[in-house]
Amino acid sequence: MSGMKVKELNSVILTSDDSDEQAFIKIFNRFYSSLYCYSKKITGCRQEAEDITLCALQSLFERRNTFQSESQIKAFLYIAARNQCLNYLKYQKRSKKKYSEYAQIIADRSSFHNRYDMMDDLTNAVLIAVDKLPKECRKILKMLYYEELKPTEVAAILQISVRTVYNQKMTGINVLRQRSLPEYLPYT
Fold first, then answer.
1. Labelling 185: which of 33, 56, 110, 121 has CA 20 to 30 A away?
2. Which residues have a Cβ under 8 Å from the Cβ of 92 and sit 6 or more positions away?
3. Does the pTM exceed 0.70?
4. At a CB cut-off of 8 Å and minimum separation 6, what does 34 contact?
C-alpha cells in the first residue's frame, strides 16, 4: 500500500469529529472481506464468521484513536478476529461436551425410569400374587417381607415352629414362581 493511502486511512481513523461514519465505512470496505475469509476458515461457519468480523471491526472502531499505522490496524483486527474465533471454537467444544453429557444423563434417566417402571410392575404383580396365596402362607410372607420380621419373631407371634415358617415361606415363593410371575423370574 502506498504511503498516501496509509496516511489517508490513518487520518480518517484518527479523527474523532463528524467523520466517524466515513471512517467506519472506509475501514469496513478495506478489511471486511479479508477478515471474513480469515474467520470463516478458522470457524468453518459462515454466520459465525460474519459476526466475528463485525465484532472485530466494532472493537477497532471503539479504539480508533489509539492506532498510528495501517499495520497496527490490520494486526489488531486479525488478532481480535483470531481470539474471537478461538473463543467460539472453545465454546463449541464445551457445548458438544455438555451436549454429550446431557445426552448420557437422559439415556441414564430413561434407563433408570424403565428399570423403575419394571420394578413397579413387578412389585404390583407380586402384591396381587401374594394376596392369592393360601391364608397361612400369605400371612407369613407378609410378616417376613412387608413387616420385615425375622422368622423367629414370626414363629413367636403365630405360635408355630421356626421350621414351619421356613416351610411356608418356601411354599409361597415356589407358588409365586410357578403360577404368577414367570415373565419376571427367568429361572423358574
1. 110
2. none
3. no
4. none
